[in-house]
Amino acid sequence: MESITASQVKDVATENGFHRIGHHKCSMCGYPTGYVIDGDHVAFDAGCDCTGRYSSRPSSFDDIARNFNMQTPEIRARMWEDFKAGKPLID
Questions:
Q1: Could you give the count of Cα atoms lying within 13 Å of 29 in the half-sphere of its Cβ?
Q2: Residue ranges covered by each domain of the chain
Q3: Tens digits of residue pLDDT in 14-68
Q4: pLDDT-based confidence at residue 1 (cuts at 50, 70, 90)
Q5: Which of 24, 46, 56, 70 is most buried as measured by Cβ atoms within 10 A of its Cβ?
Q6: Is 35 helix (H, G, I), strand (E, B) or coil?
Q7: Whole-angstrom Cα distance, residue 79 to residue 51?
Q8: Residues of 41-54 as b/e, b for ≥16 C-beta within 10 angstroms?
Q9: Helix, strand and coil percent figures for the chain, each rounded to 5
């Protein structure tokens, strides 16, 4: 599978009405970290303070695309199909 672009991520997120796209769950408390989308603005919500500080930082659709593209082609293809089907990675 070819690399996924930021514009592809933005288009699918907009089509599906995603306001949050999961990244991973905290290994200590289970909080679902992820990207928060507000129109063209994206932030990464680390959510909990298990690491000693709560952090939310500016992010981008490029960062979300990088999350897909760091996977093996097989995993990336499966994740992308789920994403296009309306599943925002981690609920």
A1: 10
A2: 6-84
A3: 999 999 998 888 888 998 899 999 999 999 998 788 877 667 899 999 999 999 9
A4: confident
A5: 46
A6: strand
A7: 28
A8: ebebbbbbeeeeee
A9: 35, 25, 40
Burial code (b: 16+ CB inside 10 Å, e: under 16) for 12-30 equals bbeeeebebbbbebeeeee
The reported pTM is 0.87
Exposed, middle or buried: residue 72 (CB in 10 Å: 0-12, 13-18, 19+)? exposed
In Å, the largest CA–CA distance within the chain is 38
Give how far Cα 14 sits from Cα of 10, 20, 31, 32, Å. 6, 11, 24, 21
Nearest alpha-carbon partner for 90 in 17, 18, 25, 15: 25
Round to whole Å and give the CA distance between 88 and 33.
Answer: 12
